[in-house]
Design a protein that fits this description.
This protein has ten helices and 15 strands. It has helices at residues 3-17, 22-29, 33-45, 73-78, 82-86, 90-101, 116-125, 139-145, 202-213, 252-260, and strands at 19-21, 49-52, 55-58, 108-112, 132-136, 151-155, 159-160, 167-168, 181-186, 190-192, 196-199, 215-221, 233-236, 243-245, 264-266. It has a seven-stranded parallel sheet with strand order 6-5-4-9-12-14-15, with helices on both faces. Helix 7 (116-125) packs parallel to helix 8. The model is unreliable at 61-79 (pLDDT under 50).
């Protein structure tokens, strides 16, 4: 397990229980006390936790997304599975996907990430008559879109993720050197003005960073539950985002906060 994966599980444990001890980290991950302390140090440097004698607590409990908090270490890992995420905020994802489709033009090239909101978009695109090139590393996205003869799908290869929903790592990333992507539709575990889009999977985050670098415009698909939530790995700074599409449940304070930064937010 990579350090960033371990740190994400540590962070989620603190979010649920309010604290964690060095001993708990050592026992859960079979690591030394030095490794446990280094993990907590890195999380503290990101302003996510506060170290205490023999452990750590959460820095700001407002960063918790209550509906997303699991109840055990095993559930922490399971809660990130594609199937569990697909069932959450379904109405919000439908709203966001419908809004996002209006940005897609005939004969354009787009990138769809492997997220569940992107899958809702893909299902809608699969029924449309619009010539389009779609680049994706999402297995569900690819299998949905290949049924439409008007859509050319470019699939980014690599290592299949553990829940068989997406490709991990950068083995196929060289393909982006030969592509011009008009629009990239991306999402993550959380979104803040300071950190931008963040996610927990270090393998997938690597690929998303490359996508952001090679796309002309970035549209972030962020349902209202993801604002003011931070995960362990940044992949898209706020200043790189052209438009954020969210849902009507978003807080007016959030809207104002982003508008004050001259960030286009659609809901």
């Amino acid at each position: 397990m990579f350090a960033i994966e371990r740190q994400n599980i540590i962070l989620e444990h603190i979010r649920e229980h309010g604290k964690i001890t060095t001993q708990q980290i050592c026992e859960k991950f079979t690591v030394s006390a030095t490794t446990a302390r280094n993990d907590m140090k890195e999380l503290e440097e990101k302003n996510l936790i506060t170290r205490t004698h023999g452990g750590a607590t959460l820095t700001d409990r407002q960063l918790i997304a209550p509906s997303a908090i699991p109840h055990s270490f095993q559930e922490e890992e399971d809660s990130y599975s594609f199937l569990s995420r697909e069932k959450k905020c379904m109405d919000e994802k439908e709203h966001i996907a419908s809004k996002a489709l209006s940005y897609i033009t005939e004969r354009g090239s787009i990138y769809l990430d492997s997220g569940t909101t992107a899958l809702v978009m893909a299902k809608k695109l699969a029924t449309m008559q619009k010539k389009l090139i779609v680049v994706t590393h999402g297995l569900h996205i690819m299998s949905t879109l290949i049924t439409n003869p008007d859509i050319t799908v470019i699939f980014v290869g690599g290592i299949v993720g553990k829940d068989a929903a997406y490709i991990e790592g950068t083995l196929g990333a060289g393909i982006f050197d030969n592509l011009n992507i008009d629009l990239a539709f991306v999402s993550g575990y959380g979104m803040t003005i300071k950190s931008g889009l963040t996610d927990f999977n270090p393998y997938e985050v690597e690929l998303k960073r490359i996508v952001v670098k090679h796309s002309h415009k970035i549209i972030a698909l962020v349902d209202s539950s993801k604002f003011d939530v931070v995960s362990t790995a940044n992949f898209c700074p706020t200043e790189s985002i052209d438009t954020i599409i969210t849902d009507p449940k978003v807080s007016p304070n959030i809207i104002q906060e982003y508008q004050n930064k001259n960030i286009n937010i659609v809901y």
